[in-house]
Structures are given as structure tokens and as C-alpha cells.
């Protein structure tokens, strides 16, 4: 099973960026934990980050064209702005789970709306970086129960 894990803008600065909101773990730490989980289940993960909306769109298309079984995406600020990412997710038949490290609903009003959520199978919000593991676990379980 192949799962793509995508991270949007500014998440390359995780650990340094507003640690009181996002914590001290780096994106590499997140990837490392996901690799440990993936390896236990013989799952391949493809972990990427971009500060560019179009690159994230291209990667979603790639997930569909290369038969990935699922995508986990933290779209970061594009969550609240991007019709293009909504359309990319709606236009592929790969299931997508949206993850947010912080509880966006406890924060500024502009973070309460997600353009992507209606196109995703689910959303995990406010559980810290553990949310990525829960999302990956969901795909692992789906894969194992469909065997
Ligand atoms: C975020 C929440 C977004 O509102 C914000 O723009 C981010 C990170 C999160 O993981 O909590 O960059 O997606």
C-alpha cells in the first residue's frame, strides 16, 4: 500500500514556527514517527512539503495517476483559501484525510472554514502531530480490512 502525505505552506518551519501553537517537533520528527508506523505494516509513505499551491495540486493528481491508496494532507493556510485544492481532491478517486495540528476552531474566525473538508473523507483537528498518525492508521486499517 502506498500513502502520500502532503504538507502545505510554512510547515517546513514546524518546530521553529509559533511553537506555542504548533509545538517543538519538526516536520522531520513527524515523518520519522510515520515511517516507524508504516514500516510495521509494510506500507510505503511518500512524505512531501511545499509552499506552493500548484505543486500541491500536481501531487494530488500524481497520487491518482500512480494508484496511491490514500492521501493525508495538512493544507495549512490553503485550507482557508484554496478552491484549486478542493477541486483537485474532488477530481480524484483517491480518499483524502485533512489534518490540522492546532484546533483551528479555537482560533481566529478565518480558520474555521475549510474549502477542502467537503471533498475529504474526514478531518482530524487539534490533536497535535498525532493527527498524522491517526490518519495514516485509518488508511492502514482500511487496507487491512479490505484484504
Ligand atoms: C494548520 C492550521 C492553519 O490554519 C494554519 O494556516 C497552518 C497550520 C495546522 O496544522 O494547525 O499553517 O493547518
Automatic annotation (TrEMBL):
What is the role of the protein in this entry?
Catalyzes a trans-dehydration via an enolate intermediate.
Q: What is the lineage of its organism?
A: Bacteria, Bacillati, Bacillota, Bacilli, Bacillales
Question: PROSITE patterns this protein is in?
Answer: DEHYDROQUINASE_II (PS01029)
Provide the site residues for: Transition state stabilizer: 17
- Annotated EC: 4.2.1.10
* BP GO annotations: amino acid biosynthetic process; aromatic amino acid family biosynthetic process; chorismate biosynthetic process; quinate catabolic process
Enzyme active site: 22 (proton acceptor), 100 (proton donor)
Q: Which InterPro entries match?
A: DHquinase_II, DHquinase_II_CS, DHquinase_II_sf
User: What is the originating organism of this protein?
Assistant: Metalysinibacillus jejuensis
Superkingdom of the organism of origin:
Bacteria
| Entry protein name | 3-dehydroquinate dehydratase
Q: In which pathway does it act?
A: Metabolic intermediate biosynthesis; chorismate biosynthesis; chorismate from D-erythrose 4-phosphate and phosphoenolpyruvate: step 3/7
Give any GO molecular function from the UniProt entry: 3-dehydroquinate dehydratase activity
